[in-house]
Write a structure and sequence with these properties.
There is one protein chain. The protein has 170 residues and is of the alpha/beta class. It has a single domain, classed as Nucleotidyltransferase, domain 5 (2-Layer Sandwich). It has six helices and five strands. It has a five-stranded mixed sheet, sandwiched between helices. The protein is globular.
């Protein structure tokens, strides 16, 4: 199963594509979508939507997994990231790809086995699970790969695939 993980952001939106076969994972690709902070928010969101839609069409994932917002100190930041998550959701739905969400706690537990693991511990596990020589850079891409791996370790894909199939029958 090909899983596209996304670490949402307005300035930098990380993405990572993995393939799960049995209990093993293989890195297929990763990167970031960046936007200019001096551009209007609507242009930045459109750029994220357009680039992500292109990635989905080219890479053809079978599932999209996104990190949920957890807590932000800055209200302006949480609103803009929420808007980015909105266009990510629409891009997945428009391309009829099942969409899943995971909290940072779920990602940390899935990769490091500990909900209070730090960013470096999670990234080291991404490196280990994907059998890489170094941690993917930038951090946003490594975080997106962690979300994709988290989804691959869950059993949700079976439930969602049956839900998506029943939706397409309507």
């Amino acid at each position: 199963m090909k899983i596209l993980g996304i670490d949402p952001g307005t300035a930098i939106c990380g993405w990572g594509l993995v393939e799960k076969s049995g209990s093993s994972f293989k890195l297929l690709d990763f990167g970031v979508i960046t936007t200019d902070k001096n551009c209007p928010q609507c242009d930045r969101l459109h750029s994220i939507y357009t680039e992500l839609s292109d990635i989905i069409k080219k890479k053809q994932p079978e599932a999209v997994a996104v990190e949920e917002l957890f807590f932000f100190k800055n209200l302006k930041t949480v609103i803009s990231v929420s808007e980015a998550r909105g266009v990510i959701t629409v891009a997945a739905r428009e391309n009829r790809i099942p969409f899943f969400e995971y909290t940072p706690l779920q990602v940390k537990q899935a990769l490091a086995g500990y909900g209070r693991a730090d960013k470096n511990q999670v990234q080291q596990m991404v490196k280990l699970i994907l059998n890489l020589k170094e941690i993917p850079k930038p951090d946003d891409a490594a975080d997106a790969l962690a979300v994709a791996i988290t989804h691959g370790q869950s059993n949700q894909e079976l439930m969602q695939n049956s839900n998506l199939k029943s939706q397409s029958d309507n």
